[in-house]
Amino acid sequence: MRIGVLTGGGDCPGLNAVIRAVVRKGVAVYGHEFVGFRDGWKGPLEGLTKPLGIAEVRGILPRGGTILGSSRTNPFKIEGGVERIKVNLAEQGVDALVAIGGEDTLGVATKLNDLGVNSEEHCDEASSSTICAFGRGRSLACGRRPRCTGASLSDAADPARDSFSPGRRIRRRRTPVGGQAEAAARHGGR
Fold this sequence. Notes:
Layout (H helix, E strand, L loop, with lengths): L1 E6 L7 H16 L2 E5 L4 H5 L2 E3 L2 H4 L23 H11 L4 E5 L2 H12 L4 E4 L13 H9 L8 H11 L14 H10 L3
Parallel strand pairs: 1-2, 1-4, 4-5
Antiparallel strand pairs: 2-3
């Protein structure tokens, strides 16, 4: 079986871990083949793919964001978008699609599934129907206590560096407030 994988919405820690887990288990246990769709729903919409095998997911755990890129593209808001996705999935020989993201990404996956596109949903804590969550704990833990590799605040910033690398989106970050700021200051130098 050939399976497509995409990540949509905003970057968050844990996306690469989910991609890696899906690919490694799918290849090793079930013998599936994977293709990555770049930049969220824009990938299957425009046929933007990248190879996604064991070699491609090796070493991605410490990287922040997502190796596939993400976007807030919604094919239902683009004229002919759903039809283009169906055509591109067929041209790529994709039998199923794994969508990893929040409420908008999973909403699109659900609608596509209802229209006959075989898609599986993986969620984050943004979804109102959350049954699984990933990423948030690692980021918070890195800023609060010495659990990360170098046990410093800079460890918490490393994943953000990958997400905001050249050519990617530019984002503003708010300074932590209250107890988070105190914890970050207390453990930031260790």
